[in-house]
Amino acid sequence: MKTFKLTAKKILSSDIKLSLHALDNLSTLNLFNTIEKTSKHILITDENVDILYAKKIIEQIEANGYNVLKLIIPPYDKSKNLQEYSRLADECLNYGFDKHSVIFSLGGGVVNNIAGFLASTLYRGIGLIHFPTSMLAQVDAAIDFKQAVNHNQGKNLLGSYYPASQIIIDPTVLKTLDRRFIVDGLSESIKHALCQDRPFYDFLEKNVENLDDENILLEIIQRSIELKLELMNDDLEDDFDETIKQYGHALGHAIEHLSNGEIYHGEAIAIGMCVSSEIALLLGLSDERTRDLHYSIFDKYSLPTVVPKKYSFDNIWNKMKYDKHSLNGKVYTGILQSVGSMALTKSGEYGHYIEEDLLRQAIDKNQQRIKK
Ligand SMILES: NC(=O)c1ccc[n+]([C@@H]2O[C@H](COP(=O)([O-])OP(=O)(O)OC[C@H]3O[C@@H](n4cnc5c(N)ncnc54)[C@H](O)[C@@H]3O)[C@@H](O)[C@H]2O)c1
Q: What's the half-sphere exposure (Cβ side, CA atoms, 13 Å) at 60?
């Protein structure tokens, strides 16, 4: 038999620019130098963000000599699916997209993710510029190569790794975002603090009453990005990095999906992180103080900490088995030894594979908090 190996190296990279009022000054950001004037371009946004910010962005793009068509999707995760993807693809191709066309994505994680997935697939990859407008998108969803839509079986099951060329972050747009979404996004910042940075944990704890101060938000977003970028090294599946990025996510995604939009992403992973801290205790890898530091910070940020009893264990377990990291009937999580430090498995890995019974015990412990 003759065998061959086909390899190609492609470097994924995105330029991230963070500053107050960045979205008022696009011409100063070197955004447009490489965008083809003769090609057609599209701005994708959702119904809520459209009313607030689309006009000012489109005016600035047009002032630089481009034509952009605006496409609007309904808000929330219900739009992050193949039907909406397919509708947007039809619109782009009918409009006359070519290989040099650019998609501008203006909105929260939902808009960024579906626009990113679309950009990665049209002509096997066209230009993509993110303007993330929600807290979750500014600290996490847009700071990634992961683009995806959901499937009935689970979240983000259809996706790709694809870089936006530019990610422009302006924290001043957060002033129009509901408080529930602000703290929802900050759940990802708390995740980084718990896993990587004790002083950042203290900073977040101290500033919970100061979230109206845009300089505090700027500082939180900056630190969150720095901590996330530490994990975005050459190996996109690196065990240590991936375990931190996915901390609380296996259970969180299951709860988020089962709740059908009632529990948001950051809320669901806050619950997931609390259950991970219970698993850590049950495994004897951590202590009560570390577990309590999980519950206390999420309580301070008014994020949920307990798995709602209305979701049966079997339903949760079945959803978790579709998590991409699940293996041989076990689910995957990182474990904290203490705040800022991850615990290793006996074989020296950061990802712990958890049996059904251990997860059941951890959720029982977690739900005992309801009675307190
Ligand atoms: N690595 C990744 O790709 C990654 C990481 C985390 C989350 N996500 C995904 O992100 C999505 C959730 O993102 P999200 O919380 O931003 O949800 P979202 O995009 O639905 O936005 C939340 C709500 O806020 C509104 N909104 C956004 N910006 C606003 C602003 N500045 N002012 C007023 N309203 C505004 C939106 O219209 C929406 O109603 C989920 O699909 C999740 O899976 C992806």
A: 17
